[in-house]
Structure to design on (290 residues):
């Protein structure tokens, strides 16, 4: 790749779940043309309704004008076809579940249909970009863009470069993140990168403390919020991220890095087995109104 890095204007987002729709909204608000793809119209309608609700909230709090809301909504197109989503994209961001085989399959679909010049970014929070690019036609164009939930609020994007990721791919990812109003950090491709390795340890230790009866969930969270100035406690954050997501990351890091600090507490496994996944299921360490 050659030439100066340019902020991509045509963005495809694959996966319309919590993260995918948040990324699509952020890209639309940055002035990009966005195509959001998922497997069914029902999921896409749900995602569009969630995006509208978030934007409406911004209008009601006078953080956003009605014109800006309408422009963002108009900038987002939806489709169930991967080929339609990516065929004109300058960057494709996959936001499918944290499963390496699934993500590899999605990358293969993208490369088969997207322009050869397109950057392929993964929103993975812990999986190896090198492993994700294994077998890819253009591994130098594959980069990690780890966004944080809720995307419209959180200011960080963690850009992950494998040994084969080009400097231009990193530059394009950074340019898009900055156009979205985010601060980007660049990290080496290691399991858990920087944020997940640190965040998971804190979250798992908070769960162990709750399991041992050290304090209530609310008080453990207050300890970090008021004692260390964290904007949100580790247990409420785990509820927001999803207990199943937290468990999958912990298991992956324990397998790849070892160490008891990454071993998932039995309480976490039990709650996931009971379907108590946090905010998205209505209950985790706290109860949530859905």
């Amino acid at each position: 790749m050659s030439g100066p890095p340019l902020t991509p204007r045509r963005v495809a987002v694959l996966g319309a779940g919590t993260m995918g729709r948040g990324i699509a909204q952020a890209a639309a608000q940055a002035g990009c043309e966005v195509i959001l793809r998922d497997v069914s119209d029902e999921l896409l309608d749900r995602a569009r309704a969630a995006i509208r609700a978030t934007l409406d909230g911004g209008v009601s709090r006078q953080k956003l004008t009605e014109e800006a809301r309408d422009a963002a909504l108009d900038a987002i197109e939806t489709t169930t076809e991967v080929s339609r989503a990516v065929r004109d994209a300058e960057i494709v961001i996959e936001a499918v579940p944290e499963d390496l085989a699934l993500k590899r399959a999605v990358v293969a679909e993208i490369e088969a249909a997207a322009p050869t010049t397109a950057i392929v970014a993964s929103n993975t929070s812990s999986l190896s970009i090198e492993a994700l690019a294994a077998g890819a036609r253009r591994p130098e164009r594959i980069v990690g863009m780890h966004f944080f939930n809720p995307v419209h609020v959180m200011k960080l994007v963690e850009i992950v470069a494998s040994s084969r990721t080009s400097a231009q791919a990193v530059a394009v990812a950074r340019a898009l993140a900055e156009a979205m109003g985010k601060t980007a950090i660049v990290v080496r491709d290691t399991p858990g990168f920087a944020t997940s390795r640190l965040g998971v340890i804190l979250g798992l230790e908070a769960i162990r403390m709750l399991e041992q009866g050290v304090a209530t969930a609310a008080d453990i969270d207050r300890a970090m919020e008021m004692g260390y100035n964290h904007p949100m406690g580790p247990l409420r954050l785990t509820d927001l991220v999803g207990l199943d997501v937290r468990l999958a990351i912990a298991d992956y890091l324990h397998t790849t890095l070892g160490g008891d600090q990454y071993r998932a507490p039995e309480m976490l496994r039990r709650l996931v087995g009971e379907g108590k996944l946090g905010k998205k299921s209505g209950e985790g360490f706290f109860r949530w109104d859905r």
